[in-house]
Specification:
This protein has about 170 residues and is mostly helical. The chain has a domain at about 45-160: Orthogonal Bundle (Fertility Inhibition Protein O, Chain: A, Domain 1). It has helices at about 5-20, 45-55, 75-80, 80-85, 90-100, 100-105, 125-150, 150-169, and strands at about 115, 120-125. It has a two-stranded antiparallel ribbon. Helix 2 (about 45-55) packs across helix 5.
Length: about 170
């Protein structure tokens, strides 16, 4: 095939392509890949995100330090369920998760102000509460260390023993 014949074939194919193009003006739809599945979010994390968005002074975004929350903050937050768009159980789980972390325990120092949803001080952390927070943080660190040092084989065997004991009882 000569150069002229190739040029003629090229022109003819371009002309055919132009004729076909108006029929399919929309690009073909992409099929979602099997790997791309919608991720299920943890309801507690979703509730925390909504709390941070709605009440940024009481639920600061990391790296800002957490602040001690008012005792009974759950009851105050339940008044805003419709605004937040979460269920009561999801809200309870979110606040419980928020108050369980090491950043929160570190914020619980004696005489630190406790904040309500709007960020206003409504109380202080007592010495007993600060001591309890310190014990919780220590316990949490110790638990994390124990979980890291246990060999996986022992963890699996212990789970089997627990199941066997439950069945026997």
């Amino acid at each position: 095939m000569g150069f002229e014949q190739l040029a003629e074939l090229r022109d003819r194919l371009r002309a055919e392509k132009v004729q076909v193009k108006p029929e399919s003006t929309r690009p073909p739809k992409r099929k979602p890949s099997p790997q791309t599945k919608p991720q299920e979010r943890d309801p507690a994390v979703e509730a925390i995100w909504l709390l941070q968005k709605q009440f940024p002074l009481a639920f600061p975004v990391s790296p800002a330090p957490k602040v001690p929350l008012k005792e009974g903050i759950l009851k105050d937050a339940e008044q805003h369920l419709e605004l937040l768009g979460v269920t009561s159980e999801q809200l309870k789980l979110g606040i419980a998760t928020w108050c369980r972390g090491s950043r929160y325990w570190a914020s619980m120092t004696e005489n630190a102000p406790r904040l309500d949803l709007s960020g206003q001080a409504v109380g202080i952390v007592t010495a007993a509460q600060a001591l309890h927070a310190k014990h919780q943080a220590t316990r949490q660190r110790g638990q994390a260390r124990r979980n890291q040092t246990k060999p996986k084989a022992l963890i699996g065997d212990k789970a089997v023993e627990t199941v066997v004991e439950e069945v026997v009882d």
